[in-house]
């Protein structure tokens, strides 16, 4: 029998393995954006088709997260994690070898499915491996760094690989990482038998939720093209809502529901997911449009853009890995989430002031720094609150739910902000305003909307969430 010290060491090594797999998948969501111009030129994409390099991944990823999380509870989290790594790694090889637009889009869809399988259960595994609250806080801090900093790291790595080698390598780089992570997971990550498929083999419910989320994400990402008030968006959106409503009805009546609705009885679980949806909607838009501002207005290269966002990753590392556990233990997750959202809001408001002839040190850095601090403080607290009400055997579905709300929020925020920014810029160009000024004005409007979304998240955190009081010798209880 291993000693307590060696067991703890093994668990922390297992956490590193899980985070390595998670980082590979999180990086992929932004690393591709930097390489899109090179992919368009090489594979002769049309402008509309190029968007599907991103959309195919998002639809599969967002649509399967909830199902994959529940599958982890039923057959074992490690099995689903390894399956996801395998699918993601093979799909990455196919993406890198793509010789046509159609091949790349199909491979990206499969890659999204693999990413959903692997990431849906990761947070649940972290919570299960670290049941003691203070250790759990530190582990979630490390996990949050990977989840939150991966976006900015992806921009840097994408710039380096695309400039130094070719776009193919943004996919090939996943192959050795995926293989090593899978081998290490087999050796280090503890296995679990799961509840058994008979405890949640709700085929109809699974079909309804996958169809609802996939169609919902598709409707959102295409709303930028068709318009939010178009018949295309309204009809498909109504069908997606109807499918989701049918899923809820099914879960109320099914003997073995895929998603037990009792999960939402926890005020913190429901509230934290709503907070995350609003926060991520604002954050995704900020990263995407901030990148466009630097590229189109400031004329930064992909590598310069990646370096510009490095303070975000640095601040997230310092606060989420080094400080968040102690701050959350001292002041409580709800308090630190509120503080983090205030920092995030400050950074977004500063982004609304960036000028056409802005300099990095004077205008960009003062905006990205509080964003990094805010994410470093808010993500670990938010993850803890979102998982605080998950019962034993439901960690996977709670983890999948957290990832699903993040993806839906990100897709919705990006569609709204990109559409609003483009519309504002187009109207100014038609009025004779110079292109740099028109672009900047469009970005400013979108940044204000991002700030409004974070304000909504802040209001939910203040009025909906409850503080988790921690007794070192007892289980956490909710303070009313």
From TrEMBL:
CDD domains: MFS_MMR_MDR_like. The chain crosses the membrane at residues 12-36, 48-68, 80-99, 105-127, 139-161, 167-189, 201-221, 227-249, 270-293, 305-325, 337-356, 368-388, 400-421, 441-465. It comes from the Bacteria. Keywords: Cell membrane, Membrane, Transmembrane, Transmembrane helix, Transport. It is a multi-pass membrane protein. PANTHER family: BLR6921 PROTEIN (PTHR42718:SF46), MAJOR FACILITATOR SUPERFAMILY MULTIDRUG TRANSPORTER MFSC (PTHR42718). This is Drug resistance transporter, EmrB/QacA subfamily. It comes from Lentzea fradiae. The lineage of its organism: Bacteria, Bacillati, Actinomycetota, Actinomycetes, Pseudonocardiales.
């Amino acid at each position: 029998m291993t000693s307590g010290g060696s067991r703890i060491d093994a668990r922390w090594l297992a956490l590193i393995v899980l985070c390595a797999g998670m980082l590979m998948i999180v990086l992929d969501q932004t690393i591709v954006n930097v390489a899109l111009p090179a992919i368009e030129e090489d594979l002769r994409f049309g402008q509309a088709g190029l968007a599907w390099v991103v959309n195919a991944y998002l639809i599969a990823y967002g649509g399967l997260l909830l199902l994959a999380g529940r599958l982890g509870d039923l057959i074992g989290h490690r099995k689903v994690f390894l399956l996801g790594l395998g699918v993601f790694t093979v799909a990455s090889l196919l993406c890198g070898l793509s010789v046509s637009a159609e091949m790349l889009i199909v491979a990206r869809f499969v890659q999204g499915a693999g990413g959903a399988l692997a990431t849906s259960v990761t947070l649940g595994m972290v919570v299960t491996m670290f049941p003691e609250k203070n250790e759990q806080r530190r582990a979630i801090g490390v996990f949050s760094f990977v989840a939150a900093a991966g976006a900015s790291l992806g921009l840097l790595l994408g710039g380096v690989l695309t400039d130094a080698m070719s776009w193919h390598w943004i996919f090939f780089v996943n192959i050795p990482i995926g293989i090593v992570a899978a081998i290490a997971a087999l050796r280090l990550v503890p296995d679990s038998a799961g509840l058994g498929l008979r405890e949640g083999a709700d085929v109809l419910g699974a079909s309804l939720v996958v169809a609802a989320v996939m169609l919902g994400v598709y409707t959102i990402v295409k709303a930028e093209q068709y318009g939010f008030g178009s018949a295309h968006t309204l009809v498909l959106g109504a069908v997606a809502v109807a499918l989701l409503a049918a899923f809820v009805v099914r879960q109320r009546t099914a003997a073995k529901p895929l998603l037990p609705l009792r999960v939402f009885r926890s005020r913190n679980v429901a509230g934290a997911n709503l907070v995350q949806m609003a926060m991520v909607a604002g954050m995704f838009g900020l990263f995407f449009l901030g990148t466009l501002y630097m590229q189109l207005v400031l004329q930064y290269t992909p590598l310069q853009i990646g370096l510009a966002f490095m303070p975000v990753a640095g601040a997230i590392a310092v606060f989420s890995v080094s400080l968040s556990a102690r701050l959350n233990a001292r002041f409580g997750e709800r308090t630190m989430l509120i503080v983090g959202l205030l920092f995030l809001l400050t950074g977004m408001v500063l982004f609304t002031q960036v000028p056409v002839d802005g300099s990095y040190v004077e205008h960009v850095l003062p905006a990205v720094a509080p964003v990094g601090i805010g994410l470093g403080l808010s993500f670990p607290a938010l993850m803890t609150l979102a998982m605080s009400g998950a019962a034993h055997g439901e960690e996977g579905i709670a983890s999948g739910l957290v990832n699903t709300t993040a993806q839906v929020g990100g897709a919705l925020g990006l569609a709204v902000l990109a559409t609003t920014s483009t519309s504002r810029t187009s109207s100014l160009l038609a009025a004779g305003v110079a292109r740099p000024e028109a672009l900047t004005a469009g970005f400013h409007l979108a940044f204000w909307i991002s700030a409004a979304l974070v304000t909504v998240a802040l209001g939910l955190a203040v009025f909906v969430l409850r503080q988790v009081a921690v007794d070192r010798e007892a289980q956490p209880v909710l303070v009313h």
